[in-house]
Amino acid sequence: MVQKAKILLVDDRPENLLALEAILSALDQTLVRASSGEEALKALLTEDFAVILLDVQMPGMDGFETAAHIKRRERTRDIPIIFLTAINHGPHHTFRGYAAGAVDYISKPFDPWVLRAKVSVFVDLHMKNVQLHEQATLLRRELEAGHAHGEGEQSAGGLLPELSARLAAAEEQAEALSKELAESGGGAAVSTAAHLERKLSGLRRALDALQPGAGEPKSVESRQG
Known about the structure:
Elements (H helix, E strand, L loop, with lengths): L5 E5 L3 H11 L5 E5 L2 H10 L4 E5 L7 H10 L8 E6 L4 H9 L4 E5 L3 H37 L3 H33 L2 H23 L10 H5 L1
Parallel strand pairs: 1-2, 1-3, 3-4, 4-5
């Protein structure tokens, strides 16, 4: 059974949280409420989230300050943040949102379908990321067990191509998303593309490190040559 992704909804107004839950319920993921920036940061200490929907205007710690704290933490810095804000704010607010690390900036009132579609993309990428990490961990364990019995190369030969194919599919989806954002313009394109590239390049490096012979010291003959 595939574990559901968690989506963090941050807004100080209960009616806004209720509306977000109604819009995103169709995704059939786990929706977690936070009524303040402080409450959101507390939830992020122990839970892993696929994406954060963050209201800009909140009493006390506002959305920009909350995002800054999220991006400073090693554990949470790569979680995508979608800012939600009232429509009467100018371009400087949008710039502040992207500067704070948001991957998108949506004005209220927003199109429910558009918001759901954007969140769905990041949920899908998160699920692929989790699956790839789990499979890479499983493969590493099998390789270690196989080496103990002299079967490491054979074990890797069967699983590595499948892992590589799954990662290639995620890379293709990310490339399509980046292209779509680039065509629509705005700071979200650069921020989202950079986020996805970091995630996927890290996974690709981890997968390459699992290749048979990766990281082994060179032989005496090759060092002398």
